[in-house]
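Hey L., structure's done. Input below.
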Amino acid sequence: MPCLWMPRADLQTVRPFLDVLKRRGNPVPEEGASPEDQVRPVLEAVRRDGLEAVLAYTRRFDAPDFRPEEFAVSQEDLAQAAASLPREDTEAILAAADNIRAFHKAQREKSWFLTRADGSVFGQMVLPVERAGLYVPGGLGGSTPLLSSLLMNAIPAQEAGVKEIAVVSPPGRGGRLSAHILAAARLLGLTEVYAAGGAWAVAALAHGAGPLRPVDVIAGPGNIFVTTAKRLLIGTVGIDMLAGPSEICVLADEGADPAWVAADMLSQAEHDVLASSVCLCLSEQKGRAVREELERQCALLPRQTVARESLRRFGAVLVAGGMDAAVDMANAIAPEHLELMVANPWETLPRVRHAGAVFLGYHAPEPLGDYIAGPNHVLPTMGTARFSSGLSLAVFCKKTSIIAPSPAFAGENAATAARLARLEGLEGHARAALCRRTPPS
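Output:
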């Protein structure tokens, strides 16, 4: 398998490879225009022309004969999609939803208040945003409808208490969305679903387009153009994160099955040619066995062309000099998914400092986290796990400070507040504090 092979790896020798990984999410198209240069006109067109622009871009890139009435998916279509779903598919969606809901329900934060002896009350209110927009990727022509992303975004918004949730997803060439995405929306009780993808769909969520009213927060993964649109709209709306291509790092000890390691690496490599799959092992023999399994299993995948290119460009099997060195390299990668495929993962876990999600043990493949375990699969990528977290209820909430001082507190602290204000040259602030020392006339 033509991925990077380093039979003696350490932090110093892998630095060039790590630099490549962290740059891979910002490719410049062959014609030389940056994603930002291409996205800005799209955002402006939708801001200016609304639905007319969304329809034009949809016809140009997704569905040539797209009609205005196909933009907003009807309640009848949602109901029909749910009714037509095979029972096994419905049960799988509901089982995943139950686990995801239980996990995110535990994330709820409460408003809190502190009461002082003088009667003052200070605190914080935790409130949901009024309206959230969710982007659900569908792949080229709807070939990979990521209904799991709908579950992972919609359920935290619902558990946060968001009243209105609008979903956008790119239609296939016939102008329709995946029946599975529509069915999942119906099963979750979502009623606003729109057929639109790409940067124009993100712009429609931010600025509004026809029946789609503007939202307060946009969440959901997408390609480089979707991500660029979200970045350029920060300040107009809130966003969840700037996610890049998928990635996995498997730390495998001598007890790890090479076939399992390779299978888990390929689960990410098949996503995208920009995906990254890395194995950190402790012996050259184990590394060679993993490489052989990658070759054997990749040849059996329907998406082997994508997986092979991903491994060629951003895959690696690295042999560390010991567990400490392997953990150091894992922390340097700061991967979206880190698998501790070791005999005593709970002993290793305290040394992990940077990862979007950590999977413990031989029986914790990444797809369990993607679909059914419950924790969110929208996670930081490209090293951003060093300072950011996965999608949670916090994305859909805002916190408001509460200041209710008693007359005694206001009077006793007026001079101190005024002194601090005058140190900053703000006399109006000082006088507003000082006038509270005496009751109003």
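The chain has a mean pLDDT of 95. DSSP finds 17 helices and 14 strands in the chain.

-- N.
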